[in-house]
Amino acid sequence: PLFSEISKCNSQLPDTNSDDEEISVSGKKLLQKSNYTIVKFIDKGSTSKVFKVIRNDQYYAAKIVDCNQLSDLLRKRFLPNEMKIVTTLKHPNIIHTEEVLANDECSIIITEFAPDGDLMSYIERQSASPDMERAKHWAIQIIQGLVYLHSKGIAHLDIKADNVLLCQGVAKISDFTYAQCSLDPITNNVIPCTTFCGTLEYKAPETLHRAAPFNPFIADCFSLGVLIYTLVTMEFPFGSGSDLRTTAGLQRLHDNIQKKQWHSNHLIKANRKLYSLLKQLLNPDIDERITAEQALVHSWFDGFKGKK
């Protein structure tokens, strides 16, 4: 599969050009007011631009959101959620937020800078599958981060390799654009999700056809299964790219997930415990799909020294 074909199912972005490196006047003023200096443009997402910045000889990443470019749903619901959530998180496998800056026109999230880039970029650079022990090391760290989020009642809703950053060998979950607080604070019951966002290659089957509200924590676990499969094999279990982004392709994707028809891969076939983990995470039956906590204690990780 061509990883370069991957894109948000709710957005088709143009190729990077000089406009991507431009910052609104409002954004510049916010950064300057807090003594941040722009170093360089890093990347562009579906709703934001990311820059490397510096303050007091310390590098950071600045995610800059132009509020005037957002839909009402993103501006009134998702962005306030993200700004609130990121300031409450503190875990070694969650990207650290230094501070948030905002005015009526612009919002900026300042986070620690990840010098090693994101996990998808790492995968794309490899000529062969990553070392299995390294893959297991990162998988554990990602799961630990997800267990932490879920323990706080937060569903990420866009778990994927692009949203895992590498900081001196440590994997950290990032980008909380679509994250939601999904536990009722009084009853502690799961609040079903009605927002169908995320990236198509990683989406759980119950989120594909917008048929009914779904459990966002269990949906995160399906995405986790896709991520681990991709990390180990350098391909997606159910395909990728523009072929999925048609009515027929979407139906085929749904059917293949329901029939548990993964792409055959020798690395997974040869590892009984890994196959067992993926089988449970990629289970289309939400009542049988395992949680992040259950994944963390799976036998594939038995005896691994990186486990905490």
CATH superfamily name of the largest domain?
Transferase(Phosphotransferase) domain 1
Q: Oligomerization state of this entry? A: single chain
In spatial order, strands of the major sheet run: 1-2-3-5-4
Spans of at least 5 consecutive residues whose pLDDT stays below 50 are 1-18
- Strand residues, percent: 15-25%
Named CATH topology of the largest domain: Transferase(Phosphotransferase), domain 1
Helical proportion, percent range: 25-40%
Structural class label: alpha+beta
Report the sheet with the most strands, covering strand number, pairing sense and barrel closure: 5 strands, antiparallel
Gyration radius (Cα, Å) is: 19 Å
Structure commentary:
This is Serine/threonine-protein kinase-like protein. Residues 36-301 form the Protein kinase domain. It comes from Euroglyphus maynei (Mayne's house dust mite). With 308 residues, this protein is of the alpha+beta class. The protein has two domains: 14-112, 2-Layer Sandwich (Phosphorylase Kinase, domain 1); 119-301, Transferase(Phosphotransferase) domain 1 (Transferase(Phosphotransferase), domain 1, Orthogonal Bundle), CATH 1.10.510.10. 32% of the residues lie in helices and 16% in strands. The protein has helices at 25-33, 72-86, 119-125, 132-151, 216-233, 247-258, 266-269, 272-281, 292-296, and strands spanning 37-44, 49-55, 58-66, 97-102, 106-112, 154-155, 164-167, 170-173, 180-181. A hairpin with a 2-residue loop joins β2 (49-55) and β3 (58-66). The longest helix has 20 residues, at 132-151.
